[in-house]
Target: ABC transporter ATP-binding protein
Amino acid sequence: MIRFAAALFAMALTLTPAAAADKMTVLLDWFVNPDHAPLIVAKEKGFFAKHGLEVELVEPADPNLPPKLVAAGQGDIAVTYQPNLYLQIQEGLPLTRIGGVVDTPLNCLVALEGGSITSLKDLKGKKIGYSISGFEDALLGMMLENNGLKASDVEMINVNFALTPALMSKQVDAVIGAFRNFELTQIKLAGGKGLAFFPEEHGVPLYDELIYVAKNDRVKDPKIKKFLAAIQEATIFLINHPDDSWGAFIKAYPKLDDELNKTAWAQTLPRFAKTPASLDKTRYENFGDFMKERGLIKSVPDISTFTTEIR
Model:
């Protein structure tokens, strides 16, 4: 009789439907690329599913829209940039930084090795290509001042997003806004060799290149905590098993199986936040001070109004 009851119990468990996963939408900052490796690995290797989540990753039609859409309740999480978050807060968007994706700067200034520029002091009188004014101007201005130059010592030329072609064709002498994990490889594949100068080595305080933000009134949603737990597990897996993770990435996005993305994948690995839910408050305060000093924001927002640490 006892054996019969146990069999019925086991049968009941088998027939009980699995709990439905909680659905989430994550709006990316750009088309899928190796910067999004923790998200792709969490989805493809089952870390989101393990935490009861079904996550949809959405590429933006306009890179400026994801934070605005999340602020409007049209998405659970957006991937954006730490510098941009201060501007979004100043605009009044109800956003909170909930975690980190890439916790070092990727932005840098690049010249061609073997040319007339061997140090930042050599930039005097040179043409600098850029894609987006504002933050990149501030970065360059700080780097120049740190080396005894002024912004007026260089000529800024908008090359749109053609940084590498502009540099390789010698339309400009250097470019600001190049990502160290992409443009340097692009230059190499085009037959050149890039010489990079890193903002954090020339007076610019450290910052997170990519972060996760959510609407203020959704920060305490239990799904957010599950999401960050899955991302942390995926990041550790990614670092411990880079080849396996790369295989999952190109299986999901076969069009990205090329030398540029494979090299970027390896170069981005050490830059991912190992504990994405952690927050370095001092670092965010220091960068807020930098944004104000460079005239990008009118006042430094209280750190508690736009960041949180979900435990």
Remarks:
- The chain has two domains: 22-104+208-305, 107-201.
